[in-house]
Amino acid sequence: MIQLLIRRIGALFFSLAVIVIIGFWLTQAMPGDPVQRMLNTSNDLEAGNSENHSKKYDQLYYQLDYEIPNFYFTWTNLCVPDSFYKIPQLNRRNQLIALSSQTGNPMKVYVFKKTEEQLMLQISNSNKIKKEVKIELQSYVNRIQLLSTTGEIATAINNFKWYNEIKDSVVLACVDQLKEHFISFEHAKAGVKLWVPVIKFHSKNRFHQWLFGSNNLQATNYDYNGIVHGDLGYSTVSHRPVSSILQKSFKITFILSTFTIFIAVFFSIPIAIALVLYRNKIIAHIAPGILLFIYTIPVFFLGTLLLMIFANPSIISLFPSSGIAPAEGFNSSLSSWEIFLHTLPYLTLPLITYTIGSLAFFIRLMQASLIDQLNTDYIRTARAKGASENRIICIHALQNCLIPLVTSAATAFPAMISGSVILENIYSIPGMGTEMIHAVQNLDYPVMIGFFLIMGVVTISIYALSDLLNNFFDPRIHYKLKEVSNE
Q1: Which terminal CB of the chain, N or C, has fewer other CB atoms within 10 Å?
Q2: What span, in angstroms and rounded, lies between the C-alpha atoms of 381 and 116?
Q3: What is the DSSP-derived secondary structure letter of residue 71?
């Protein structure tokens, strides 16, 4: 048993490590610029103030330690220095990498991009250029700043047509400098340098901070302690900690899923035993068809149907139509038991909706397992010794049938939490499913990744618990593992 426990714990930590690495990779692979998303939802930014926006961007970029490498090592080539990660603005950084890979001269590319910025600044500050010409020039420079191939940039520079309309010598000097800097690297080729690998190791990196937190962030508004301490970062929409967003909602979803599994397992065992005991009766012959029909009912259809019938003032208004508690909350003088009794009407329809499909599946599974066990040799031996049918099924056969039931329940539990999106949306339950819908609608990637990490931990933990319970119900599993290890 101890060896099995050690193996399961080892497998648990390995799986958690894989989930953590995938979770971090997802944080880096999400589309868009995370700093830009946080700024776009900030209330203190004034529309149209691009200079203020740029300053706030750079401030937040360095405040969140985005200027350090992503991992413990970086793999680049001689064309692309590993210091490009220090440059704010995701689009600008990607353009530098693309142009450096084409030309093999990152320093000249960087000077060219800085000249672009200087040209844009001089155009904006110039008082000697007509307004309509200034707008055209700004649009022209913006187009160049978005280009990432030397051919496209050459075409754009050759199409410059405002020499006669620009009366500002400083702006004209910047235009000439831009052309000179482009010519200096236009015909350069990366060649062999593109294939020469360069590996550098970094003790300070974002993955390490993502795991264990960062001391640099302690003095900022985005204090981060690392996921090993339960800190999942900050929402890019509400700027609230993801842990606090998902903590309450996970508790609600976890309780609903636990009750669902418990009710389905608790009632499936006696019903399956009854169907096997009376397997020659008519009810046992029609039960598979009824169970199949119940199992195939879509959750969204059943939930909507129950709402229309039992939470409809025009038909039967027995249960509340939404939420898990009264809108005004509970009286502080109520005891825990009284709060539970007041909450029960709110949970009745959601539990029925979620339980009925799992109950039908577990009944059918237990019935098939019990009938299969009745044809085994040890059951025949028990009958030969004169044991009653009730004792044979409830004592001898039932224990072996619990193994597939436990495995199926362990598989269904994470699926129920993941599938809570539909149920909670129907009944307006403030659980993880509802938070996930809001995160998807608002492109709140940190909340999505937090949901992924929590679901990974829950799934692995449930599967590990399932293995231990299977070993408890059938010790032969332990002996089989021991024989395999001895071989």
Answers
A1: C
A2: 89
A3: S
